[in-house]
Amino acid sequence: MKPDSNVKQAVPFFGVADIQASLHFYIDGLGFQMTKKWMDEGVLRWCWLEIGDAALMLQEFRKEGHDSYVPKGKVGEGVTICFQCTDALAIYREARQRGLQPAKPFVGNGMWVTDLTDPDGYRIEFESPTDAPEETEYKEAE
After folding, report:
1. How far apart are CA 130 and CA 132, in angstroms?
2. Which of 21, 24, 33, 83 could potentially form a cystine with 119 if both were Cys, beta carbons 3.0 to 4.6 Å apart?
3. What's the confidence (pLDDT) of residue 142?
4. Where are the beta strands (DSSP E) in 2-122?
5. Cβ neighbour number for residue 97 with a 10 Å cutoff
6. 120: which DSSP letter?
7. Does residue 102 contact residue 92 with C-beta atoms inside 8 Å?
8. Are 132 and 87 in contact (CB under 8 A)?
9. Could you tell me the CATH number of the domain that includes residue 37?
10. b vs e for 40-72, b when ≥16 Cβ sit within 10 Å of the residue's Cβ?
11. Structural domain harbouring 100
12. What is the mean pLDDT of each run of 10 residues along the chain (142 residues)?
């Protein structure tokens, strides 16, 4: 029997250049829901987004004043977050219906994998177990 763990969840915290563009991607495009937020002088500064049992946080970089930071490039380049799903193919189809362009799913390491890149360069993967042969590519129903 495994003892209770003190650590319950890892939640990625993304610094973003334009929180509204990120919200459009995550909420309108992928179906996340905003469950927590911090408003500062009427401006959304931080939020907690959930999809299923997973979550992530977004905070826009301050562009001036104390704690300001203007990245020279896309801050998310080189960062991949893998969401483990029951059905990654459903995520792929839903994202396409919502106007996003996820990568065509393929089987890698016994899992269907599809990915997208958010406005700041963070790579978001959705994966689900499958018995399909390795390197199988998803074919849309005709």
Report:
1. 5
2. 21
3. 55
4. 13-16, 33-40, 43-51, 54-60, 80-84, 106-108, 111-117
5. 9
6. T
7. yes
8. no
9. 3.10.180.10
10. eeeebeebbbebeebbbebbbbeeeeeeeeeee
11. 13-63+75-129
12. 83 95 98 96 94 96 78 89 97 97 97 97 97 94 64
